[in-house]
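Worked example (supplementary).
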Amino acid sequence: MTTTTNVRVRFAPSPTGFFHVGGARTALYNWLVARQNNGSFLLRIEDTDRDRSEDQWTEGIVNALSWLGITWDEGPFHQSERHALYNDAITRLIANGHVYACNCTREEIDARIKARQTPGYDGFCRDRNLEPGPGKALRFRVPDSGTTTVHDLVRGDVEFANSTIEDFVIVKSNGDPLYVLAVVVDDIDMAITHVIRAEEHLPTTPKAILIWHALGDIPLPAFAHLPVLVNEKRQKLSKRRDRVAVEDYRDLGYLPEAIINYLCLLGWAPNDGRELLTVEEMILEFRLEEVNKSPAFFDEKRLDHFNGLYIRALAADEFVRRAMPFISNDQVPWTKNQFDQEQFFALAPLIQERITTLGEIPNYIKFLFSDPYVIEEAVFEKAILKDETGVEILRAARSAFADAAFDHEPLKDILISIGEQFDKKLSKTQAPIRVATMGSPVGLPLFESLVVLGRSKVLARIDDAILIAERSR
RNA sequence: GGCCCCAUCGUCUAGAGGCCUAGGACACCACCCUCUCAAGGUGGAGGCACGGGUUCGAAUCCCGUUGGGGCUACCA
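After joint prediction of all chains, the assembly is encoded as:
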């Protein structure tokens, strides 16, 4: 694709709901093509349907793309602001006879379809020479014979018999242009060279081509129809049915670079098996012609894997920088005053190597800041009350911790020797201490955590645990 | 129903007629490492939808079947 013409692509979402990962993948592929050709990436908001478009969704699209690092060179354009352009095209299409006015109602059309047993509009108004105007839609006069071929970069040539294409509406009876017209007019106006979009648009492409030709002798762009992303039931991802909004993943603590990497691999892969790709490598190596033809399942498990890898690859200071929004929001189980940044920093490296999303961080450090401090009854029961030695271990540790050097090696040695008294392995001995001080049988390494928690809190919590244990006896 | 697209482990994929006894990754299982949990390491199980061709030779090419999907609006 190292052409002499300037490559211009566009991402053209409709602002009718959450911006989902399928749209992000389409945007990414467009963006990669633009970047690898030193071309331009345009953002165009397809809001010709005023009833369904809302500003909040446009905002969501813009925010999500920015967050992902998919930058646009021109736009965002809004089709709702470009009516003059469409009207001009409509005037020309009326003048050259490619469209005609139609006042059939849906009911009438359906009744005739039922009677004829053939689908599609029957061309009732084709030769009635109705005067175009309010209350009448405009339909495109599709040739009765011949074929329209879509030359598709990922699918090859796809042929449509014109006889199977109905005379479709391009302008509503209220004068608003329809998507299929607006897209063509805009793509021509914006000199788009590559139309890269999801496969669901393939059936309307011959219509677009017909309009294209009707508008004059204008070279067609290259088309590329990407396989759709599907859910576990292998249905096209839908913003209504599937919770896959890009912003949700951001809020859950996924890294944009991990999402980009994963999305890039959904439908394309380098042939040497590499999976961790930098954006630079994607730009260099991605090929539209190599994109797969079949639908791909958006597998959150696999995304998790990539996210974990990317989190672990972060430099320590970068990790805490990215973590901050997730530990200083108002959903966290501690107050601003209770939070101690230094304590978090001290444990951060240990957290970094065991999480898959940044949203998991609070759970790992709530034992430090959360107050009052609560231990689940069942957990307490299992780790401390289960047998006699539970409390004994707590007592022994309590007295040894009181005047030990409070560092992880000495603390560990103490627990090992306590374990020897009771003939228990360290893995068993640590459990009651862990639950008493950290509130959970699983979590960060114990001794490092105790050091950061501090001697006084550790002793106090062990005292509390002993007290509760004695009371419940 | 009509038009169109698609078909390699459960999932994402490598594979452009001999390099395929089909490779990698996620998930799964086992073991190792280990203060818990992870992470990491090693190993394992698991696939060319089916049937016909073409060819000396087919996961790869052709046809059909089956299965899945998309579209079928005065939505995009």
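Two points are worth noting when inspecting this output. The first helix of chain A runs from residue 21 to 36. Residues 25 and 332 of chain A are 32 Å apart (CA to CA).
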